[in-house]
Amino acid sequence: MADRPRISLITITRDEERLIGQCLKSAWFCDEKLVIDSNSTDNTVAIARDLGADVTVHEFTNYVTQKQMALDRAHGDWVLLMDADEQATHLLGEEILRTIAAPDAADGYHIRRILYHLGHYYSHSIYPDTPVRLFRRDHGHIGGRDPHDKVVVDGRIGRLSESILHFSYRDIADHVATINRFSTRAANEHQPNALTVVRMFTNPAWRFFNFYVIRGGFRDGGRGLYAAMSAAFYVFLKYAKLYERRLKSRTPL
Predict the structure, then answer these.
(1) Could you tell me where the DSSP H helices lie in 27-102?
(2) 165, 172, 216, 228: which has the highest count of C-beta atoms within 10 A?
(3) How far from the centroid of its chain's Cα atoms is residue 80's Cα?
(4) Are 36 and 16 in contact (CB under 8 A)?
(5) Structure confidence at residue 152 (pLDDT)
């Protein structure tokens, strides 16, 4: 296996001392680990460096630019993108090693993420989250719209069977803070218009129905109801902030 393709892990951090260690340790199958840190005030950088990561400290710009910065520093034949609050299962690591060694390997791969929140793994389809996270370095770049970055692959894309575990929120208060932060960034990427106030109602209603009924959130009981409500709340906040901006633009100073 000495001549197998090399794999680079890339991730971005800010004050992630609680989880960055497990993230890096779970990537035992990666040959290099690259971290772009946004001026953490805790022990994130020290922990990452102690675990062998190459850490670059750079002021935060946005999620797309920051992750592309990490990708630009990678040297591996393949790149695995994980957030600091994610962990690769051991079975995923073994599957990745087998996959990239195959002569018919694709150029990128979707990997399912399973969210852990409220003491529960959301393994049902309420969070059908399978982003592209593994890709040939010379066939991919980071695209999308802040804060929702995505890997864009030039070539054939397959799908792996094993999963990444996502430990995103410490508690509900942390989740609400994340919703507030992300909805602000998402609103900043759009322009308000005459339909904004309508979408402030219709889009959250559709998001709730989609999560709770179509995706089967009701099967997760109270946790499923919480997931659907919080997803709808995120959409509501995004359009409410757009509406607020529209009102301010029409109000003379």
Answers:
(1) 44-50, 63-72, 90-101
(2) 228
(3) 12
(4) no
(5) 98
Size of the chain, expressed as the number of residues it contains = 253
Structure tokens at 148: 């929702």
Question: DSSP code of 212?
Answer: I
> Parallel, antiparallel, or unpaired: how do β-strands 120-122 and 78-81 relate?
unpaired
pTM score above 0.85: no
CA distance 228 to 165: 20
Residue with tokens 């992300």: 182
Q: Are 241 and 195 in contact (CB under 8 A)?
A: no
Please give the average per-residue pLDDT across 227-251, as a whole number. Answer: 92
Sequence-ordered strand ranges (E) for the chain: 7-13, 32-37, 54-57, 78-81, 86-88, 108-117, 120-122, 132-136, 140-145, 148-153, 157-166
| 143: Cβ contacts below 8 Å, ≥ 6 apart | 64, 149, 150, 151, 152
Q: In the prediction, which pLDDT does 20 show? A: 98
pLDDT tens, residue by residue, 55-105: 999 999 999 999 999 999 999 999 999 999 999 999 999 999 999 999 999
